[in-house]
Every structure is written in C-alpha cells, then in structure tokens.
Amino acid sequence: MHNSNTVKTENTMAEAPSTIVGAAESDQQEQPFRLLDLPPELWSNICKLAVLSEDTIVFELAKPRSQNQIAVGQPSITQVCRLLRAEALPLFYALNVFRVQDEDDGTEASSRLQCWLRGIGLKNRGYLRKVEVFAPYDITDSKEFFAIGAEEDGNVKLELELVKLEVRPDKHGVVREERTYDVHFAEAD
C-alpha cells in the first residue's frame, strides 16, 4: 500500500508540470498583443519604422486609369484602424522619397499623373516632401499637376526642378527625351 501511494504521488507530480505548462500556453494564446496599449510615443515610433523605406518608393503609372488607384500603395499598417492611419500616413508621405515613372508621352500621360495625385488625396499631398517625376513630357510649366486642390489648403509651397534630361531611343527605336524632375513640397511661410 505504501508503494502504491508513492507511485501515485510520483505520477501526480510528473503530470503536474505539464498541466501547469499547458495552462500557461493557453493563457498566452488567448491574449493578443495590443499595439495601442503601449505608450503613444512607443507605438508612434513603431509606426515610423513600419512606413519608412530606405529605398525610393517607385510608382509606375499604368495606362488604364483604374490601375492608378492601386498604385497609391499605402502601407498595410495604415489599414488597421483610424488611429494608426492618422499617425502613420503623414509619416509615410513626409519621410519617404517617391518616384513616379511614366513611360508614355501621349496626351493621356499628364492626366495619369494627375490621377495618381488625386488618388493620394489633397491632405496626403500636403505631407509629401520629395517626389521625383520621371517622364518623357515637360512638366516644368505644369505645377497644377501637383497643386491639385492646394488652393483649398493654402499651406503647401511647391518647388519643381528639372534635374536630368536624357535623349535616347525607346524600345521602338524612336529617339525621345526623358526628363527627371524633383518636386519638393514644403509648408508655406
């Protein structure tokens, strides 16, 4: 009898740790990580890291206008909730360098560029600090592409500078001018 108690006690002790471990694992699985429970300055820094790109963010303007809406390409973290969107989108547009590429020199080209700018919206255009535009057409006299709706906001200053001009044949052998512009947005004084 004494032996059976000893065996029983040993079995109970052998089972106890696995039961405790199982309970701890189930508690961990039931409690999701809640980013917004962190102090605001911490989740703000996390947002910054999530949206900051070391590389230039490139958007190729597609011929069908419906694809330009997809090209807006806002980070996934901005789709989580309104609070994260309000925190992360201004950082995304202000901290990154964007390159808009348009290979087409047809009459619809400028409207595709306008479509992209409308797609990101007036408020987000106000956060932009640096956009490179690669296009075979001249936009130096077309600040209205970037200032769409800016008269409603009134606090965005725009500088447009041609930084590169190349003359080379396209894929069909037609010699074309390719222009790269730097577009700087800043708050008006």
Automatic annotation (TrEMBL):
Protein origin, superkingdom: Eukaryota
Entry protein name: F-box domain-containing protein
Organism per entry: Teratosphaeria nubilosa
Lineage: Eukaryota, Fungi, Dikarya, Ascomycota, Pezizomycotina
